[in-house]
Specification:
- The complex is a heterodimer of chains A (about 500) and B (about 220).
- Chain A has about 500 residues and is an alpha/beta fold.
- Chain A is built from 21 helices and 5 strands.
- Chain B has 1 helix and 11 strands; from the N terminus they run H-E-E-E-E-E-E-E-E-E-E-E.
- Chain B has one helix at about 1-20; strands at about 25, 60-65, 65-70, 75, 105, 110-130, 140-145, 155-160, 185-200, 210, 210-215.
- In chain B, strands 3, 4, 6, 7, 8, 9 and 11 form a 7-stranded antiparallel beta sheet that branches. A two-stranded antiparallel sheet of chain B has the order 1-2.
- Classes of the chains: A alpha/beta (about 500), B mainly beta (about 220).
- The interface of A and B includes residues 276 and 505 of A.
Chain lengths: ~500, ~220
Amino acid sequence: MKPTACWLLLVVVAVAAFGLRVIQLDRRPMHHDEANQAVRTGLLQETGVYHYDPQDHHGPTLYYLTAPLLHLSCGRDFSGTTETLFRLVPVLFGVGLILLLAWIVDGLGWPAVLVSAGLTAISPAMVYYSRYFVHEMLFVFFTSGCLIALWRWTRTGTLRWAVATGVMAGLMFATKETCVITFFSMVVALEVAGVWSGSRRGVLMSSRLRPAHVVLGGVAALVVAGMFYSSFFTHSQGLADSVQAYRSYFIKGVSSGNHTHPWSYYWHLLGWFREGQGPVFSEGLILALAAIGAGFILMRRPIGSADPALLRFLLVYTVLMIVIYSAIAHKSPWLILSFLHGLILLAGIGAVALVGSLRRRSWKVAASLLLLAGAIQLTVQSWRCNFQYESDPRNPYAYVQTSRDFLKLVKRVQDVAGLNEIIAVVSNDHDAWPLPWYLRKFRQAGYWQNASDMPAGLKPAVIVTSMDRDQPLDGYQAEIYGLRPGTLLNLHIRNDLWAAFLSRQENQ
Amino acid sequence: MNKLTAMLMTLTCAAMVGQAADEPMIKLKLDLPKPLFTGTPPTLKSSNLEPKRTGPRPDMMVPEGVVNLAKGKPVTGSDANPVIGDLSMVTDGDKDGADGSNVELGPGKQYIQIDLGKTGALYAIAVWHYHSQARVYRDIVVQVSDDADFIKDVTTVFNNDHDNSSGLGVGKDKEYIETNEGKLIDAKGVKGRYVRLHSNGNTSGDVNHYIEVEVYGK
């Protein structure tokens, strides 16, 4: 296939990926983490102020890269923002992840790049978290950018790629604290792959990488990360906090809690997941092809025009990432992306190696058709994940997901109370989110830990209470709504508003 | 003559009522499936929710000879092609809360309808929607009629649709948490051939589930 046709195909894949990611972006209720990030971004949008929180919420890039879109769409008015607007940001980075592959064509070859692009486009996990307003897709994009720049730097030894590597590393650092795992895996993989490929001194110490370039790359990383963490040179404390944060994140990583899962957790989600009578979800096609790719790399069999050193690097890097993430007690499904990205690259290699190893043309055609059938099945799963089971616990990636029933609570509040009415939320910390996002249009929404904390005599139009707080409340009609699987909320509607609502219902 | 007729009618009615009142009553015994979670979560309280009960469920008295008329009877519904399972599971006698025992109907307002085969006097209706997780199923309305289309002579025996979102009238019954005990509804001897059960999603999602429905009568 001619390079022009390959380019065209890559763009077609990217456009298709965009289509799959962008439709019905508001379909899934906001997860409490998404809502939290959206509200923090809204503060930046409205006030222009952001300070990094070393205890939680991860790095600044998500907020700073989203705020311009919010400004363009609705100025400084956070209440005018929508789910679609926020989720458009990870969508763009999810599509960008595919287009980035164009910079590694001379390392993997067009066939492997196109297969990897296709698998990235349809992987249920990739699609699901491209439609999810958290840091993960940005982080994977910057990781991919860093890997590509690093490879090109080690290959060309030019300053340009040294700086590009530094910029991408800086963006990774400014996005998520888990970047240290990726940096560690990259450096170890680089050295192991270097020795494996016959370099006595490894890659980092090779004469191709000039010390001045290493320093300049490091400076680029520090400048980029420093810019974000210092809130663009307005909050110097952010720089120190960005380092101190690792203490709390380390404690979270090793301590037991609600997010503690066994080492096999990610394999269960990716390999074979069936909850109750729900459908089976499996990204087994990617796992199988990645295993084939790994086998060919280990056997030192040539794979098309791919650079053997790069393949070894990718194999060691991906295996290391899987081992480290599996060993950490604290697990959440979106962390899969960090190593799924590597697995997809290996799967691209595996597919090309598999078809290339077959001698007869008819076998090649049969294998290609089989892979196509697998890809179609993966697309169907992606559709189910995102448009049928998007907030259903039977979806492996819907983790502590807000229930669709919660949207009925929001609608009921909107139906009975005016935007100037007092809305009270009396809740524990866990059950308050994602209410602040959904109540953003109400000008007088207040949050209390206990009903007794509310000012005496206050008679809010509605009171949302978590089940562990005081209830019932006199003078209010109560309704129960699901927040998440196993977590319910009470909505108390003042009797006069309830009567007016019922009267309106009757007249309709 | 008219007076005599009226007297005779009154006496006949009195005799019939007396007969019903004198009819030996027994405790309705339900075979309960294994519990998958224990009772109402202690922190769950709401003025629109049945309060947490301490001790066993009060007995429901029914006339002697009452049997489950719904067992194995045909079931139809608003969702002819359920998401999971099939409608026959509603009357197959399997009340287990584990997977594979329930039928899942599509999102939003849905109903199922049981044809008892002939008109009978119905005394109790027991329904199990789902009992492996604390959930509230919304807008539960249970109706009985001799009309398969439920247009005329419809008797509502249970309705907790407090905001009339199903359009079947405002219900005064309270919402409840599903458990292995199911919901036992007093049908008060209403006569009918068809039993229709409405629901409108649940607190965990939009879809509707039925494990089993039993209709006790004769």
